[in-house]
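Hello forum,

I keep getting stuck at the same step: I have a sequence, I want structure tokens, and every attempt I make locally crashes halfway through. Rather than fight my setup again tonight, could one of you with a working pipeline run this one for me? It's a single chain of 280 residues.
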Amino acid sequence: MIQDMVKTYPKDAPIGVFDSGVGGLTVFREIMRQMPNEKIVYFGDTARVPYGSKSKETVTRYSKQIARFLQTQNVKTIVVACNTASAYALEELEAEIDIPVIGVVKPGAKVAAESTVNGKIGVIATEATIGSKIYSQYIEELKPGVSISGKACPLFVPLVEEGLLQDPVTDEIARRYLAELIDIDIDTLILGCTHYPLIRSTVGKIMGEKVTLVNPAYETARELKEMLGKLGMLNDSAPALGSEQYRFYVSDKADKFIRFANSIIKYGILSAKQINIEEY
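Reply #2:
Ran it on my machine without issues. Output:
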């Protein structure tokens, strides 16, 4: 099956990445850095963000629609750059799609299990991701006996989407959310939503130097590179001059997305095409 995938999808085919909004751009950024030869197609579901407060059935339906759209772009693999969608929809996507699919939960869980010294790990994420206990399941498989404490931080996503990355309001809310994790003396904290690395400095300042922050966006890009290498699907030559290496699609508010994306990626994104994702 995997060998058939390699034959069907050439090395220079793009990587598909999707998220509920702009948070997945942290994964996109890491793929750019670690695999500069790769083409990437990004979809941000800006019309239906956030996913974290929605049901498993709804998030799975959204994810399948987006995966079908990305397949029309002839992507060679799909990165589910959303913790909620990774928790709720990854297994069904893997079963239905004939190309490799990777989520952001397993790579982060693996590094957290390797990093903890005192066996106390914290996870901050959306309500859906915390409720799914998906991080706990993976970590306990890797390192039985550890203590995993989850904390839903639902206000972080809208704060990031509004660009309030360095703001007293964000600082105050972060202090309130993180207080109980500080009290139980965790030594490792997973930033369990792809929006959260954008306020990493705020979280790190509050948690202190003794707490290791795990960024699943970085770890996912690293695991993706390793997977594509094993499958013989890494693009080993830079795209031709004039070719469109990065393409962006959204379900709403393309102008706002472009402004925010440029503040994160520093690439010079000129356009993002709005599509009706409900058609897929």
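Residues 106-216 form a domain with the Rossmann fold fold (CATH 3.40.50.1860). If your local run keeps crashing, start a new thread with the error log.
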